[in-house]
Amino acid sequence: MTDAAAALEPGRQIQTLDELTEEQASAVLDLIEDAARTDGTTAVSEQGRLQLRGGPREGIRHFLLTEGGRLSAYGQLEDTDPVEAPAAELVVHPALRGRGHGRAMGTALLAASGKRLRVWAHGGKSAARHLAQVLGLTLFRELRQLRRPLTEGDPLPEPVLPPGVTVRTFVPGADDTAWLTANAAAFAHHPEQGSLTQRDLDDRIAQPWFDPKGFFLAERDGRLVGFHWTKVHTAEQLGEVYVVGVRPGAQGGGLGKALTAIGLRHLAAQGLPTAMLYVDADNPAALAVYEGLGFTTHEVDLMYRTES
C-alpha cells in the first residue's frame, strides 16, 4: 500500500495500492463484469484488466473504494508516459451508483495525479460525461469502435500485397523481439500501443483468446515490415482487428489494407458474423481505409483531461 486508507465519509474508504491480492483482483473483475452487463460496455480496458494481476507494475496504482466493507468502486492510475498526464479508468458498481462514489473516486485520482489527469469514459455514457464535467475535465480524445458484417452479402476484398512481401503467422518465443521492435516503430506516435513490453506481450499470449494462427506477419527480405493481430471474443461471437501496424518505411503501398483484408478473411472463415476495431477519430487516413472496407461507427470511447 502506498498510503493509508483514506476516510472520506462515515463508512466510505479509499485504499491506494501498488498491487492487488488475488482476492482483491477477483473482486475488482467481478465488479467490472457486473457493470459491463448493465452498461453494455466495459469500463476498464483490456490493458487495465491485465494489470490487475501479476504483482506490482511500474507506474500503476489501484484504488479500491469500499463502503461498509463492500467494494463499491475501482480506479486505476497509470503514470508511465514521460510527456502526457497520468491516465485513469474508473468504475462504480451498478447497484451502488448515485451515492457519490464516482465523484469520490475521481477526486482521489485527481489528487493522486497532482491534478494533472486524463480519464477514459468508455462508451461515452451520459453519466461519465457528467462526472467529467463535475471534476472540471474537458474532452480531449475520441476513440471510435467500428464494425462491419462478415457475411456473404458483404464480400471482403482480395488482399493485394506489395511486391516482395510475404505473409506468415506469428511463432511465440521466436518472433517476440522482432514484433516488439516493429510495433514500437509502427506506433512511435501512439504511446499506449507503441510502448508495449515483453511482459505486456506475455500477458496477452497467456490469455485464453490468444491464437497464433490469427496473428499475421508481413516480411520483405526477411525483415518484419507489418502485421495484423486478430482476436476473437467467443462469448459475443465477435472478431476483432486487434492491431494492424506497418513500419514507417513500408507505409503508403497498400500493405495495411492487404493485411487487414487477410485478417478479416481469417475471422470470416471461423464463422464469425461481425468484425470490430478501434481507431482514433483524428486519424482520417486510417478511418478512410476502414470505411472503404465497409466499417461504420458502432460506439465511441471518450478521454477527458485537466486543462493544466
List the helices and strands and how they pair.
Blueprint: E1 6-9, E2 12-17, H1 22-39, H2 46-50, E3 60-67, E4 70-78, E5 87-92, H3 101-112, E6 118-121, H4 126-134, E7 138-149, E8 165-169, H5 176-186, H6 191-194, H7 198-205, E9 215-220, E10 223-233, E11 238-246, H8 255-269, E12 274-280, H9 284-292, E13 296-305
Parallel strand pairs: 5-6, 11-12
Antiparallel strand pairs: 1-2, 2-3, 3-4, 4-5, 6-13, 7-12, 7-13, 8-9, 9-10, 10-11
Protein architecture, described:
By secondary structure, the protein is α+β, with helices and mostly antiparallel strands. Helix content is 30%, strand content 31%. The protein contains nine helices and 13 strands. Strands 1-2-3-4-5-6-13-7-12-11-10-9-8 form a 13-stranded mixed beta sheet, sandwiched between helices. Strand 1 (6-9) and strand 2 (12-17) form a beta hairpin. The model is unreliable at 1-7 (pLDDT under 50).
